[in-house]
Amino acid sequence: xxxxxxxxxxxxxxxxxxxxxxxxxxxxxxxxxxxxxxxxxxxxxxxxxxxxxxxxxxxxxxxxxxxxxxxxxxxxxxxxxxxxxxxxxxxxxxxxxxxxxxxxxxxxxxxxxxxxxxxxxxxxxxxxxxxxxxxxxxxxxxxxxxxxxxxxxxxxxxxxxxxxxxxxxxxxxxxxxxxxxxxxxxxxxxxxxxxxxxxxxxxxxxxxxxxxxxxxxxxxxxxxxxxxxxxxxxxxxxxxxxxxxxxxxxxxxxxxxxxxxxxxxxxxxxxxxxxxxxxxxxxxxxxxxxxxx
Length: 293
Description:
Elements: E1 4-5, E2 7-10, H1 28-41, E3 45-48, E4 50-51, E5 58-59, H2 62-74, E6 80-83, E7 90-91, H3 110-113, H4 115-120, E8 124-128, E9 132-134, E10 137-139, H5 143-155, E11 159-164, H6 167-178, E12 187-192, H7 202-211, E13 217-222, H8 227-236, E14 240-243, E15 250-252, E16 255-256, H9 259-272, E17 276-277, H10 280-287
């Protein structure tokens, strides 16, 4: 029997490159429509950020997340919803005093970073388990903040998708597993190609994979032109895959993509390599989630 591969679609993200794309999902309605488009194309999970409907800038208001989630669920979709908890983690030192926040800082308490997740109860939410340079700012996730977030996610009965950008992030995630903050089987996402973090190469994926707990369910993605090579690499190495406009705007050089087109291309690669995209019910089984309903 062909192996089932879970396809996640990261439909919008929080980057500022959306200005380049002629039809980028910004409003809750557009984001929800992109989620449903991704499902039709073969995705089992959608990874959701929200944006200010007027400016397109990254946002974190629970009301925006609620509208996206309700629109997807009201459509009767069987999608697994994965909400980000990354908003509120950026810090840029002030120019005159590095101890004060400069432009671009979004830092908020860890309790606020998971509030929308506690209220909306998605099946999955992200948990970025380390600090690293992200462009001109620092993506700040201190151990104590992460323990607070992990405890609240666990108490809410939600599966954390552990986001790994560097090897040390896996080490700390395993420490939290030992402390009972992340339950078995863990779900990891290997994030490759982010500037100043792990490169989008097969070697980097292999090394990060080697550090994972034996029971881990894992997925990987590459950004920009490395998106589809990393789809193939992840399938070949026994993992699951992620594509979407959060990570890459193009279907081919100079050709802007939709989320559905990116998922369709990933599904084609999966099938070319002798596997099959997992249906949402099967994805629940693989991840150790309770059946829907």
